[in-house]
Design brief:
By secondary structure, the protein is mainly beta. Helix content is 0%, strand content 58%.
Length: 119
Amino acid sequence: QVQLVESGGGLVQPGGSLRLSCAASGSIFSIIARGWYRQAPGKQRELVASITSGGSTNYADAVKGRFTISRDNAKNTVYLQMNSLKPEDTAVYYCNFVTTSASVKYAYWGQGTQVTVSS
């Protein structure tokens, strides 16, 4: 049974930094992508950043140049380094792993971690 556990959220002042971590436990194989999404109150969940098994990254325009996604394959972990945080970055952040088996894709989600940017 696969479980994704996030950590690293919290309250930070504008301009500050946070580092989110997401570790997968259980038997998880053939990971093709990892990502971070966020959902602010009253808004839809949106992609923040993703990284493929080959290391290609993709970022939402709103976070380019400020956030960096990285992974540790040996630890089945994905990270999100968030710098120069803004109040509009306030949201619940969710990690996501996508695996494949017999040409079928499976998505796993973490429980979410709150990030609040406020003075």
